[in-house]
Q: What sequence folds into this?
């Protein structure tokens, strides 16, 4: 089941870090058809498509506040407590990300600053399927609330009580019973019941992913491009094979396309991790998924910590776990990753649920250019400037010389008319 | 030439704020062909396409450092001085945007923080054409330098000395002689001479725009979706018609599709602005462009400041100029805009060139969901966490309860194996 790769040359790093080609399912005309139908028929299209694709009858598109209340109350008390704990931690971490705006006097009389404002209307998609992702409700609706988004529309075909509980706790403003590409179409275009939003967040299957890409082409922002979830672990002799195995399996159980990557300077760690994985696999309910995912896994032995860091910067993991001596010094060498977990007692699942960091992170190497979801994702930063007449006189010649050199005379005139 | 609209009802705001439909030129197969050719033939394709599309013969694709030095030196001394002044201001404003990272102890023994790292490789496109946009070199290459991007590749068919001067000043690492969709293809795919980058910035014509959208679909990040440039001015009786006219004309001279929007509570201001525009137009070299752009302009009389703010929030202008009493109080009501210019002595051209703020801003209503380019645009924010065994014991039950409710047993095991 396991492939161990020994001492690859740096020229092999790029190849080793390649992810399987994303299947860009040929869904173009199907998605376009769904959008067209939702555009022309609105709520009626949502009812019909939900019946056809999911065999669910929905009459009203939105849940009423009473329904949300009723379903939320069915959440187990223990789970309610856990969700509240996670809520507090996620809130605290994202609230600390608020822009501290300071006015800067760039030149005498020239004052510039930034302010952050929430995106007025956002949509959150939570898939149905085997795992009811109420944790993702927290990860998206909490920063939306902190950002001050006015309308937060949650679409989900899932019906687990904890999704309602989390939505209520986070102040979601509307909750729709719809899923799939038709939910993304509704958020993009708006219908009688579903408000048109400016940005759409959340995971989903290939239909949802394709619909989000299509929405993006129509001008609606999206959180980030999607790809299969992944973890990379770096371990030296300090690593604990049983812990490493549990982290690799947490990733592998997500789905057959999950990516698992272990880089170590210590062959013993790799070998013992193999044994620990086999041992822990036996008792996993989602064992079959995990086993299939492990077929794509890579276990790479490198000579030095420096090589490990180079390889991991090339890989740009969604999750990077550092099971090594002085993990903070190692983390300082990492330029590309979604989220980094330092030390033996920091499992990925802490960040997945409860430590406070966000679990919506860039996969598929997108950590080279994208951040994970954070408070910024729900805000825009607006620049402001206030210039006095004296201030403008300091800038005047610079503006005029540059504008005239760019052949933009009216730009120069806007200064001249004010200073004459 | 001018359309004045009096006291529209709030139900008309959305329609009044509509931009002309973006012409999504049917360039799909052309762009795909260019990308395919660059993919298979590399530098040779760039030479051939540059000959065919632009009738320029280029032998080497990159400028040598000596060539850059030589061309840069031809910049007029006055213009050098202006560019240095602008450089210092833009540097100061963007440098102040650095993330101040603070570790947060979310629960006892649970410490989370963020760090920002530069995107390793970025591409900047600067178009040829009538206006040599050396100012845009500053706006993109300065934050790239502050962010710590390792490779900054500038592609441009333009040959104005100031572009070389600005590139050198900002520490651009490579400069390529290529333009059009082939330049975007080279940055996306890499060739023998041009490095493959992770994110592409900069303005361009419809071919460049379509190529950037295509690059984005292939997984390369882009700065933001493109649209025609635009300004909105809000003026009450405090506004000065000659100043307002000069700002509207600065926008109108950009191109025939530029958008110009004046909202006022004072009909006298609108009428006098009409006269001032006619007066100032006479002497503009780009008069024809500006006149055509003004055909799309809107001059809207509203009853109250509140209505003006509502209308402007709906419009979400790229540039918003506030020529009114207490502009700061008015700015507090604005949730959607790219950049806001406060008071009678703050023309848009100050921000276009020299005050320090960035001029690459969201157009076409994208200010509802996108920020303008800022330091964030060149960085990723990575989250980090370090949890002690005691810390994990505080989170343990929460993680386990949530993971098990989501049917993700291996996620729960990753905690159990560490705490047993």
A:
């Amino acid at each position: 089941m396991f492939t161990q790769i020994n001492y690859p040359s740096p020229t092999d790093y790029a190849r080793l870090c390649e992810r399987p080609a994303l299947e860009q399912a040929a869904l173009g005309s199907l998605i376009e058809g769904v959008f067209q139908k939702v555009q022309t028929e609105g709520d009626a299209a949502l009812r019909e498509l939900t019946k056809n694709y999911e065999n669910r009858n929905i009459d009203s598109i939105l849940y009423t506040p009473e329904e949300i209340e009723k379903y939320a109350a069915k959440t187990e008390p223990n789970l309610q407590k856990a969700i509240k704990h996670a809520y507090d931690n996620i809130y605290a971490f994202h609230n600390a990300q608020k822009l501290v705006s300071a006015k800067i006097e760039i030149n005498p009389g020239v004052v510039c600053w930034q302010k952050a404002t929430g995106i007025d209307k956002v949509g959150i998609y939570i898939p149905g399927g085997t795992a009811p992702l109420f944790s993702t409700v927290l990860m998206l609706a909490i920063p939306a609330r902190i950002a001050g988004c006015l309308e937060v529309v949650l679409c989900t075909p899932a019906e687990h009580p904890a999704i309602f509980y989390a939505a209520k706790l986070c102040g979601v403003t509307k909750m729709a019973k719809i899923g799939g590409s038709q939910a993304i179409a509704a958020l993009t275009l708006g219908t009688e019941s579903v408000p048109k939003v400016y940005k759409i967040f959340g995971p989903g299957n290939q239909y949802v992913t394709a619909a989000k890409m299509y929405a993006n082409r129509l001008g609606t922002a999206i959180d980030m491009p999607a790809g299969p979830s992944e973890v990379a672990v770096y371990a030296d002799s300090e690593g604990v094979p049983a812990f490493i195995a549990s982290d690799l399996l947490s990733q592998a159980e997500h789905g057959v396309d999950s990516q698992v990557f272990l880089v170590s300077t210590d062959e013993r760690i790799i070998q013992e991790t193999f044994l620990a994985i086999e041992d822990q696999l036996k008792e996993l309910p989602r064992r079959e998924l995990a086993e299939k995912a492990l077929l794509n896994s890579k276990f790479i032995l490198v000579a030095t910590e420096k090589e490990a860091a180079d390889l991991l910067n090339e890989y740009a993991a969604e999750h990077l776990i550092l099971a090594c001596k002085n993990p903070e010094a190692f983390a300082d060498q990492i330029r590309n990753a979604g989220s980094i977990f330092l030390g033996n007692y920091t499992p990925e699942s802490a960040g997945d649920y409860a430590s406070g960091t966000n679990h919506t992170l860039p996969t598929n190497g997108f950590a080279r250019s994208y951040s994970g979801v954070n408070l910024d994702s729900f805000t825009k930063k607006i620049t402001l400037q206030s210039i006095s007449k004296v201030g403008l006189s300091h800038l005047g010649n610079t503006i005029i010389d540059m504008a005239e050199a760019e052949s933009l005379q009216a730009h120069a005139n806007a200064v001249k008319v004010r200073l004459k």
Summary: The CA atoms of residues 145 and 171 of chain B lie 7 Å apart. The mean pLDDT of chain B is 95.
